Amino acid sequence: MNWRWLGFLAAIVVIILVVWWLLPGDKAYYKMDVQEIDQDIRRISKEDWPIQERMRYYSERFLGAPYELLAEGDGPYAKYDQAPLLNLKKVNCMTYCEIVMALSLSDYYADFNNILQNIRYDKGIIGMATRNHYTMADWKSANSWCLDDVTKQIGREDTRKLERMISHQQFFASKDIYDIPLMRRDRNVTIDYIPLAKLSDHSDRLRTGDVVALIQDAEGIFSAHMLLIIKVQEKIFFRHASMSADETIDSEFRDYIQGLEKNRRYLGMSFMRLKSEINWRAADHYYGKFNTPVPVIPRKEWGAAVPVNEGEIHTPEAITLHHTAIEYTGTPPVEEHLQSIQAFHQQQKGWIDIAYHFLIDRDGQVYQGRPLRWVGDSSTDYDLNGKVLVCVLGNFETQEPSSLQIESLKRLCTDLIIEQQISLQNISTHREETDETLCPGKNLIREIDKDDFIKDIEELVRVQT
Predict the structure, then answer these.
(1) Based on CB atoms within 10 Å of each CB, which residue in 72, 389, 393, 398 is the most buried?
(2) Where are the alpha helices (DSSP H) in 75-108?
(3) Distance between CA atoms of 409 and 402, rounded to whole angstroms?
(4) Average model confidence (pLDDT) for the chain?
(5) Are 439 and 430 in contact (CB under 8 A)?
(6) What is the predicted pLDDT for the residue at 23?
(7) Within 13 Å of residue 244, how many CA atoms lie on the same side as its CB?
(8) What CATH superfamily is the domain 293-464?
(9) Does residue 182 register a pLDDT over 60?
(10) Residue 20 pLDDT
């Protein structure tokens, strides 16, 4: 026997076992530290996984996690609930679902923490008054930016409706809290649910990662428990933080439903599904992914020609809004349209480059034009030095700007104000600079003249700085 080779193989086995043990993905998150979890989130974010696979993966990382009814609160310095703001060591049914959702949408740990608080609280503002307490009345509607209610889609003709009076005042009073602002008034809320007896008939339309609310027969409340759907080949499980089991477990779908049917308190289930594509602005929240700078498509991606010459250097101090005065509805493709504008400006007008620094298409996509450090150009006589020229594609004497164009215009102005330290008062239209033009068109001017246009930009600037 070659003992040297035997020793070498034994060493290899030991190394493999050590590496396997150290890989974060093979360990439960409730046993890992922040650095390990961050490393694993970053690893998974690079994988081209659909959202359902991410939900399956992250939910599995908490199997066996201890159950704690009061697992999370508003942090140690809160007035009413000093439980940890974030707790990955112990979970309850709601915090478990929220954590898995936030992880599935995250690229790194700080990103996860921010998204989690935006799921738990109204606009991410932390506090007892702003927490989304009621699953179906508060939580579901507040998270419509990332969740779709798919109950009708799953249950079809077997879907039923249920109405309840929801009272935050009574909720807080039950906790002996009487000195708290009421963010939501008492209101009647109607939801969809599928009766327990009909759930098995529609199980083929369930997906891994679907968020489930167990609906109960009780006044003033809908949900008794929250769970996740996990599908493995032909089998379906409820994955949930169970009070009775005192940990996070998998329960076989039909067995679990049969157990519920023995208790007349339970009526059925409602289903929510995480969106595969998230519009981070739809939440009207303010931080992290929710308020990233508007993405700008670089010149090379729309096929821009090189500038004819170097431009005159200036320091951006103001924003001037333009339109192209050419009707545009999406044909030809925007890349060709931008190339034709640039060619006209360079070849017919004799300018060094496309006149504008930024251009916005009908879908709200923002394109990089002339380098920002160079003065722009215009056919009219006004001082262009220090002006950032923002052009919205279309003729708004005859066309209406799209809502996406207006939204991107607000966001781009916000980013320029912050990045270039431009005063909010230094936003103007081309027509305000000279009486030689109708630019940017009466229909776009009407949108810009609305009070909420500047107010929205002002608010976006306030919360980002």
Answers:
(1) 393
(2) 93-104
(3) 11
(4) 91
(5) yes
(6) 42
(7) 5
(8) Peptidoglycan recognition protein-like (3.40.80.10)
(9) yes
(10) 40
- Give long-range contacts, CB 8 A cutoff, 24+ apart: 32-40: 34/109, 37/88, 37/109, 38/108, 38/109
Whole-number pLDDT of residue 348:
95
Q: What is the pLDDT of residues 40-85, one digit of tens each?
A: 999 999 998 999 999 999 999 999 999 999 999 999 999 999 999 9
Question: pLDDT by residue (tens digit) across 130-148?
Answer: 999 999 999 999 999 999 9
The CATH class, in words, for 28-274 is mainly beta
Q: Which of 324, 315, 320, 356 is nearest to 428 (CA)?
A: 320
Question: Binning pLDDT at 50, 70 and 90, where does residue 27 land?
Answer: confident
Please report, for residues 117, 352, 360, 369, the alpha-carbon distance to residue 327 in angstroms, rounded to integers and kept in the order given: 44, 24, 13, 19
Q: What phi, psi does 63 have (nearest 5°)?
A: -60, 130
Q: Residues near 421 by Cβ (< 8 Å), separated by ≥ 6?
A: none
Contacts of 123 (CB under 8 A, 6+ apart): 130, 283, 284, 285, 286
Q: Encoding tokens for residue 353? A: 């480059």
Structure tokens at 10: 């034994």
Between strands 318-323 and 296-297, the pairing is unpaired
Domain boundaries, the chain: 28-274, 293-464
Structure tokens at 109: 């740990």
The residues facing 405 across adjacent strands are none
- Measured CA to CA, the distance from residue 75 to residue 114 in angstroms comes to 14
